[in-house]
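Input record (one chain):
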Amino acid sequence: MEKSNIKILAIIPARGGSKSVPKKNIRNLNGKPLIAYTIEAAKRIEEKFHKIIVSTDDEEIAEVAKHYGADVPFIRPSNLAEDKTPTYPVLQHAVNFVEKDDGINIDLIMLLQPTAPFRTTEDMLNCLNLSQTSNTDSVISVVQVFSYHPILMKKIENNRLTHFSIEEKEGTPRQLYEPPAYMRNGAIYITKRNNLIEQNSIWGNSITPYVMPQERSYNIDDEIDFITSEMMMKKSTKK
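The corresponding structure, as predicted from the sequence alone:
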């Protein structure tokens, strides 16, 4: 399969029923709706995608997404927009809809969470390159962690504190935490169609990591995250 013929679908899932922050995906963040940062970053490399779509159950989110240039070819069914709905059936629904509506077969799916506004277009391009140059089922963006390193995790047994999985020697500086630990930052996922449709999986069996710096890995989940993100953005524009 020639790279130029690969059909890539970018999907931005944006449910309307956020409990932690009402209307989170379209809340104003430093002058524009949160979801706009993800749409605009994807639009800068629009030629790489068959389409950039937003999957939402909310008409207001749909209108905002269209305003910033994303396609909203459907309103997501309510049974795929519940609090405990996994992500993979949401992506399956989107892929199946686009394939049927456009009469094509999608090869790769790029999942872009709207809660990661610091992810850049360059990050997307790097992940796309990894997905096409390495023998992998998926590419997932990660960030190296220190304050969440497994060496710091403890458990309580018989009312005594003990290590959870890795013993921490007293006084160990974070530079010596071994092995280095990484966590998914929620910014970018790329998966092959067969992983998603045939295996009900985004990750697959073989995952290639894409390491992002901490300043681009910030994810917005609650009110404090909004305040912190706004401060970060204002500070960066002053430089």
